[in-house]
Amino acid sequence: MWSQTVSFRAKLLSTFTTFIYALAALAAPGISDDSFDVLNYVDPLIGTANGGHVFAGATLPFGMAKAVADTRGENQAGFAYDTTVVTGFSHMHDSGTGGSPSMGNFPIFPHPNCPDDDINKCKWQQSDRAVPWKKKSPVARPGYFGISLQNGVDAEMTTTNRSALYRFTFEDTSPEALSPLILVDLIDLPQSRLNGTADVDRSTGRLMGNGTFNPSFGIGSYDLHFCVDFKGAKLRDTGTWARNRANTSRDTVSFYADGTNTASTLSAGTFARFHSPKDKSILVRVGVSFISVKQACSNADREQPNFDFAGTVSAAESAWRKKLDVISVNADGVSSDLQKVFWSGAYRTLISPQDYTGENPLWKSDEPYYDSYYCIWDSFRSIHPLLTLIDLPSQSLMMRSLIDIYRHTGYLPDCRMSLCKGFTQGGSNADVVVADAYLKKVPGVDWDTAYKAVVKDAEVEPANWNVEGRGGLHSWKNLGYIPTDDYDPYGIGTHTRSISRTVEYAYNDFCIAEMAQRMGHHDDYKKYAARSGNWAHVFKADQTSSIRGISTNFTGFLQPRYPNGTWGYQDPIFCSPLLNFTSCYLNPDGHETYEGSSWLYTFYAPHDMGFLIKTLGGPKAFTSRLTYLHDSGLLYVGDEQAFLTIYQFHYSGRPALSARRSHFYIPSQFNTTVAGIAGNDDSGAMGSFVVLSMMGLWPVPGQDVYLITPPYFKEVSIRNSVTGKVATIRNINFDPRYRSIYIQSAKRNGNPWKQNWITHDFFAEGGLLELELGASESDWGTHLEDLPPSLNHYHT
Ligand SMILES: *[C@@H]1O[C@H](CO)[C@@H](O)[C@H](O)[C@H]1NC(C)=O
Ligand SMILES: *[C@@H]1O[C@H](CO)[C@@H](O)[C@H](O)[C@H]1NC(C)=O
Ligand SMILES: *[C@@H]1O[C@H](CO)[C@@H](O)[C@H](O)[C@H]1NC(C)=O
Ligand SMILES: *[C@@H]1O[C@H](CO)[C@@H](O)[C@H](O)[C@H]1NC(C)=O
Ligand SMILES: *[C@@H]1O[C@H](CO)[C@@H](O)[C@H](O)[C@H]1NC(C)=O
Ligand SMILES: *[C@@H]1O[C@H](CO)[C@@H](O)[C@H](O)[C@H]1NC(C)=O
Ligand SMILES: *[C@@H]1O[C@H](CO)[C@@H](O)[C@H](O)[C@H]1NC(C)=O
Ligand SMILES: *[C@@H]1O[C@H](CO)[C@@H](O)[C@H](O)[C@H]1NC(C)=O
């Protein structure tokens, strides 16, 4: 069986491979080590327990079809390791998301036979048919997922872009007793179905149908279609079923939201039953489409005409190897676990958003269409900056698709899934993604339209700012902050998060200012640069903060402000892990900060660090406050706003402390266990965080700035997939025990490099950055002239 081959190979590798030295074939032809297969270092099960919500199943990079076993429990991505029963196998998922479960439409389920060969004795509906899965049976590899069920079914699956292929092997049943029955259920994981239809073709056994469902974190509804074909056994009979009753004389079952029997929890569908298969296994191919049943069938026919399971797995593996091949590391001395943390993180960054080009029924366009930007509030900080480095062609297609969404819906999304508008969590952070791509010269983008899109975010309040744009723009322009208890008759949205929205809008405006400056819109530059200073209007200089009655001795925090300028109050530690951690979610009872404390948001002025440091009492006070944030338990690294704070010591001239802090979180919070990520992965946010951290260059999103820390490897190289140029970061005196993690001196292409940051041209043009390491902090990168840019100057 496939799974045995896989584990045998993995075991061989871990036993005999003490170190791996891989170089991209293009960078150094002939030197690559054949024993290195990057896929042995990708473990899709990392982050599948304890709320990580990582998608563990089979998918191509950014593939639309994502096949996995759906389990009962916290099944946001279908399968979760901390569950016991499988309810079906479905073909569409998202990865790492919070909120409610996503998609999981039209699950199929195999029965080896029905008791007494009576279809009405089979268990049909979702809650009754669930079967325990065998512990330790899940095998997950890029492009492959396998799991064994206690009913004797071994389930394996793989995918192409728009179809899934399942192989069900019936282990514990004698061939004479076998009469496999495969059902399809018109249900989805969130149980959101509004209407649905299923048909069966009784001559071929083909199962077809469609349904209307709700998105998991947004508004509206979407239609999806499926087409199921079988191979490997002779068709016996077909029919329909609802709840726990089936009928072989009917071919169609339908439910409509306006009719009876419409509960979205109702399980019903069609089925095909077979004579005993020759080799105890049956292949099930499922095509999916947002356009029509016809297109679902043609997607499957085109992408896998031959039901070639091994061939489909191997095509998926090649696609994954090719994607990951742009990164190469010298892993000499680095533990196999840490290498797995790294490569698995890169893998997870390449799962979403999904490429639905040609599958968008909402508008006609020649532009690409990507979906499941879930959500940009999470992805702007590390996912898109990493994609710009390791998959520029895809980042370009995503940018074009974002701009096309603006063209056809009127706004850039902050979150979007299943063809629907998703909820906005803070600012209009697509502005950051757009500016980041502009500064890094992502090719193929219509920048004039992109600029119109970001200006619209800044100027025109939408009717429903829960799902796009910004709320409170009247106050933003007139008062210079988002007030608590705002008066806003111009649009509808959730009036919480006045502090976090203020600092995010300020940074969004800065990103627009950067574009305006370079595009020659000088008046806009002045306007948005000025507005980017608005964060300071919610800084209350005399606000103190205590923890359990003991003063933290830091003064000055962001606080809510009423429209009349009077201060409100929110305890600066409120919504940190130390106080009411879960009280700042996205609902009308949320408070003035979003998923974090005022303590945390007080550090968010990424464009104006000079002024922020001055405001907080100078570099020494800033450093001790930032240290306190990390040491006190006030910070949760499982939410994305934490990322930048790990590296902000660079701004107070202490790059060594950023390096030390990065090792404080990796691997203690990021490891190879199934619970090995902090928080939800959020479409690869945690994965990209760990990759960028281990590469040693932290991108400040929305700026042409990478903060330099030593890589976790002796050497890391990134090959630009468009130009072929290679950028290499090399540690001199590399210490795999990570005691020497402090940069003593640096050279770029042989010349001294004193700045503690570097710009994107390093990656665009290629080159060599050499970092000489030592066991203690040096004065490298600590001087005023070494610090990253700031809108207002640093003060000594
Ligand atoms: C899958 O889609 C990607 C684009 O997202 C494309 O580059 C790739 O060639 C497709 N794979 C196959 C096998 O069609
Ligand atoms: C399904 O439900 C949606 C939403 O209620 C409705 O707009 C659509 O027309 C329905 N489709 C069919 C085919 O009944
Ligand atoms: C679903 O299929 C039924 C039957 O073929 C059809 O009447 C209906 O319009 C389809 N719904 C959608 C949303 O395509
Ligand atoms: C099965 O379907 C046929 C055809 O629609 C119908 O005549 C028959 O009554 C159904 N049987 C049951 C038990 O519902
Ligand atoms: C704040 O300062 C006081 C007086 O120096 C000290 O006793 C106290 O421990 C400090 N609080 C913290 C949290 O460090
Ligand atoms: C400002 O508004 C707040 C909230 O409505 C109110 O409590 C406060 O008294 C007002 N302050 C002034 C100076 O009017
Ligand atoms: C804070 O949490 C406590 C329970 O831990 C709860 O009673 C209280 O209502 C919460 N406060 C707010 C403002 O959410
Ligand atoms: C692995 O990471 C998880 C999630 O951050 C953490 O809770 C756990 O303690 C870590 N385990 C180890 C052995 O470091």
Key terms:
GH92 mannosidase fold; 4 domains; six-stranded mixed sheet; Beta-galactosidase, Chain A, domain 5; GH92_N; disordered N terminus; binds 2-acetamido-2-deoxy-beta-D-glucopyranose; 20 helices; peptide-N4-(N-acetyl-beta-glucosaminyl)asparagine amidase activity; signal; nine-stranded antiparallel sheet; globular; 21% strand; 26% helix; Glutathione S-transferase Yfyf (Class Pi), Chain A, domain 2; alpha+beta; 796 residues; carbohydrate binding; 32 strands
Overview of the molecule:
Keywords: Signal. It is a single chain. With 796 residues, the protein is an alpha+beta fold. It has 4 domains: 12-30 and 326-350 and 668-796, GH92 mannosidase fold (2-Layer Sandwich); 104-132 and 144-322, Beta-galactosidase, Chain A, domain 5 (Distorted Sandwich); 356-470, Glutathione S-transferase Yfyf (Class Pi), Chain A, domain 2 (Up-down Bundle), CATH 1.20.1050.60; 474-493 and 506-636, alpha-1,2-mannosidases domains (Glycosyl hydrolase family fold), CATH 1.20.1610. The chain contains 20 helices and 32 strands. Strands 5-6-7-8-17-12-11-10-15 form a 9-stranded antiparallel sheet. Strand 21 (416-417) and strand 22 (420-421) form a beta hairpin. Helix 5 (336-349) packs across helix 19 (685-695) and helix 8 packs across helix 9. The longest helix is centred in the middle third of the chain and has 22 residues, at 498-519. The radius of gyration is 27 Å and the shape is globular. Mean pLDDT is 94; it is low at 1-32. The structure holds 2-acetamido-2-deoxy-beta-D-glucopyranose (8 copies).
